[in-house]
Structures
1.
Amino acid sequence: MVETQTPPNPGQPSPAKTTQVEAEMTKVVNENKSWMRFSSKLVDPEHPIRQEILFILIVILAIVSVAWGWAHGLNLYKAGLNPNLFHESLGTVMAILGVTWSYFKLYRTSDSFVAAEEARDAAEEAEERAKKQAEQDRKDAAFSKIVVSFESAKTFEERTRIMGDLLAVGVESPSLRQRVVNALKTMNDWMVDSEIFLRDQNLVSWRLKNALFETSSRFHENSETQDASIKVINILETIIRKHLEEFIAGHNTATLDLSGHCLPTLNLSAKEIPPKCLKMINGYFWQSSFSESHLSDMSFAGSSFYGASFWRATLENIDFQDVTLKRGKLRTNLQQVKNLNREEFFLTKEWDLCLLNKAQEAEFFGEEPSEQDPHFNKWISSKIRRDKLYFGIERI
C-alpha cells in the first residue's frame, strides 16, 4: 500500500510559521500586560512601589528639564532666534504644576508620609493629654489643700475667706465643680434639723436682706452659722447658674448632683434646665423659684419644695413622686407631670388655675365628681379663667 502526501496549500501558512507567529503575538501581549501593570503601579497609591521615590524622580526630571530648557533657550535668545522665551516660561509653569500635583497625589499619600503624620499626631495628642493630666493633678492637689483648710478652719473669718476660693474653683473648673458642691453641703445641714421653724419663715428676706433670726426656745443657731449658710446658698446658686450656661452651650455634659442638699430660696427663674443637667432628689428647696423656667426630664422625687414657685413654668416629664408642695405656687400646665400627689396639689396656692390632663382630673376629683366636693366646686368655678390662661393648648 502506497501512502500519499497531501501537498501544502499555497494560501495556508506552514505549521512552523504558525507557531512562530503565535509566539510573537503572545510576547507582544505579555509586554502590553507588563506595561499596563507598571502603569497601574504609578497611579495606585496602595501599590508597593514607593511613591516618595517616584515623587523625587519627578522633581529631578522637572529640574533637569527646566534647566536644560532655559539653557537651550538662552543660547537661542543670545543668537537672536528666540526673542521672547515663551516656551521656556510655559515649560517652567508646567513643571511647577506637575511637581505640585505629584506632591499632593503621590508624596502626601505615600506610606512613609502618612505614617510620619500619624506618628506626629499621636505624639501631639499624647503630649496634650500629659499636659491636661498634669494640670488636672495640679488642680486636684490645690483643691485638696483648700478643702482641708476649709474643714479645719476654726474662725468664721477664715472659713469665709476659703469659701471665696471654693467659689472660684466651682465656677472655673467643671471637673472639680461637684466636689466643691459636696464640700459645702454640710454647712447647711443644721437647717434640716430646724426645718419646722425655718420653712414657715421669710427665708427670701433672711437671705437677701440678711434679716437673721434671733435665738429662742425654738431656734438655737447663732448669727455666724446663719451668715455662713447664706454665703453657701449664694455660692452654690452662682455655681449652678454657671453649670447651666456651660451645659446648654455644650461645654459640659456632666450632671450636677444636688441630691440631699438644703438650698432654700434657690432662684432659677426663667432658666432652661435641660435633661441630665441637674439632679435634685431628696433635697430641701424651700421657697425656691422656678418661675417661667423650662424643665425637662427631671426627677424631684422625695424633695421638699415647701413654698416654692413653679408659676408659668414649662414642666415636661417631671417626676413629683413624694414631693412636698405645701404653700407652693404652681399655676401652670401640669399635664406632663408624673406622680403628683392629690393632697399636696390641693395644698398649693391657686391650684385651681393649673391645667390638668383627663387622668389627673379623674384621680383628683373622682370618675364621677360630687357637687358636694369643695375642691371640685372651686375647680368648676375657675374654668373660665383656666380657659383664658391656656387658650389654644390641647388637653391630653
2.
Amino acid sequence: MHGHTASRPASHNPIAARIAELSEEYLTASPQRREEIGEEISGMIAGRVIPMIGR
C-alpha cells in the first residue's frame, strides 16, 4: 500500500499548491469527489477558478 512519506515542498504559486493538494486528495476520493477535483483543476488551468490563499 502506498503511503505519504514526505510532505510537499512549499510553493509560492497558489495554483500549483492547490493542484498538489487536490492531486493527493484524488488518490483516496470517491468517484463523485474525483469528478469535482478534475473540474476544479480544469478550471484553474483555464483561468476560470482562482484558489484562495491562506485557507
3.
Amino acid sequence: MRFVSFISSVIVGVSFFFPWFKVPSGESYSFWGILSQSIEGSFSWLNPSSATSLGLYVVFFTGILMVFLGVLFGLLGGRSGPALGILGLAVFTAVSWHVYGSGFGKILGVGYLLALAGFALGIVFAGGEYL
C-alpha cells in the first residue's frame, strides 16, 4: 500500500499551491506563502520579540516542518509519512486556532482541507496496522 501513501502525499503536495487560509482582511495564504512569511518573520503574531511569541513561533514552524516532512516521507514510499503529516497538521492547527480563536473555521481554505483529506487518506489506507 505504499502507492496509496505516495498518492496521498501528491494530493497534499498539490494543496501547497491552494489557499490554506483566507484572513478577514481578504488576503489568502498558501502553504508556501505561510512558510516564506514565517521564515522572514513577517507574520505580526509570530514576532519572536517576547518569550511567548518566540515559543509560539517555534511550535508553529515545527508544525510546518512536520507537514513538509510528512509529504516528503510519503513521496519516498514511507507509510509513516501521512502519520507525521497529520501530527504536524494538528500542531499547525492548534497554533492557528490559538491565534484566530472561534473564527478559525471561517478562515480555512481549500488547500488546508485538501491536505487534511490527503493525510487522512494516507493514514487510513496506507498505514494499516504498521506505521
4.
Amino acid sequence: MPVIILAGEEDFELYRRLDELKSKLLDPAWMSFNYARHDNPPPADVVDLASALPFGPGNKVIVLDRIDWFAKKRAGKTDDTAAGAKKALKTAAKTAARETVNEDALGEALASVHPSTYLIFVSTSNFDSTLRLSKLVSKTADLQEFKREKFFPGSPIPAKLENWCQKEAKHFGATIDSDAISYLVDGLDANLRQISSEIAKAAIFVMPKTHITLAAVKTLSPHHSHIFGLADLWLSGKIPETYNALRELQAKQNNMATVATLQTFIGKWVEIKALCKYHNEKAAFGPGVQRRELPEGDLVKMIAPELKMHPFALQNDMKRLRSVSLEFLEEKRIELTHLENLVKTGQMPDTHALELFFLREKKEPARRK
C-alpha cells in the first residue's frame, strides 16, 4: 500500500522501521528529489501532498512525522499566564483546523495516491482505532504498530522482550545468555535503545568469541538497582553508607554513566513531586475544611497515566521521595548539571564531582515538605 502508518510508543523500533522503509523504497540517486519530511502537517496539507508524483525513476517517499491524529489528547494543567493563553489559542486553532478538514477530500486523496508515491504517517503514541480520523486513514493504509512492552523491575522477563534481545544479538553477529538478557532488561527498565547499545558493546567486547555471557554484560553495563540503592541511602541522609555505596558503584561502572543515570532519575523525580504538588493544591476544599494531602494511592492513580509509568514503579518512587521536597530535588538537579559541566570542561575530576554531589551537607529547609 502507498499509505503506511507507523504508530506506537516504542519509538526505537518505530524509527528503525522507518529507516528500513526509506532504504527499501528510495532510489539513492534520486533521493534529493523524491524524499520529503513534514512535521505534523494539518490534514488540508496532506490532501495536497497525497497528489505528489515521483520525479524520474523509482518512488517518492513523504514522511509525515510526529503526527498526533491517532491518539486521544490528555487534558493538561491550566496556565493562566498571557503566554499560556496564547498557547491555548494556538492549540485550539490547530484542533479546529483538524476537526473542520474535508474528510471526503482527504479520503479520496489517500485512496488515489500514485502507486509510486508513499505517504508514511509517523506517530509516537499508540494507535487509537476509535477516533474518527484513525478510522478514515486506516481504510487505505497499512498499519504497523509498535507498542511498548509492559515491564517493571523485578517482574519476570516477557517472552517478547527475550526474543527481541536474542534477535538483537544476532543482528550484531552474536548470541546471548538468558541471564544476561534478564540483567539488561531489568537493569535498563526495558529501554530497547539502551539495551541495543549494551548488546552492541558486549558483542565487540567478547570478540573473537560470539557468545555474550552474564559476566561480560556485568563488566560493561550499569544496573539501575545499584543506582537505586545508592539513591535510597542518599535520600534518607545516611552519609557513611552513601559513601560506601558510591565507592562500590564506582568500581563497577564509569562515573559519567552514573551522572547520566542520575540526571534521568532526578528529572523523573522532579516531575513526580511537581505533579503530586499540583494535584494536592487542586484538591477541592471548602470553608472551615483544612487542606490536606491526597492519599498516596489516589495520587498514583492520577499520575501514573500522565507519566506513562507502571503504578507499582510509581508507588516505589513516591515512597522513596517521602522525606524530600520538590525544592530540594530542583536544587540538586541544578547542582548536578553544574558539576557535570565542570567535569566536561576539564575543571573537575568526575570522582570529585560525584563525591561533592552526594556527600555535601544537605540544607534542612530544602528537605522540608
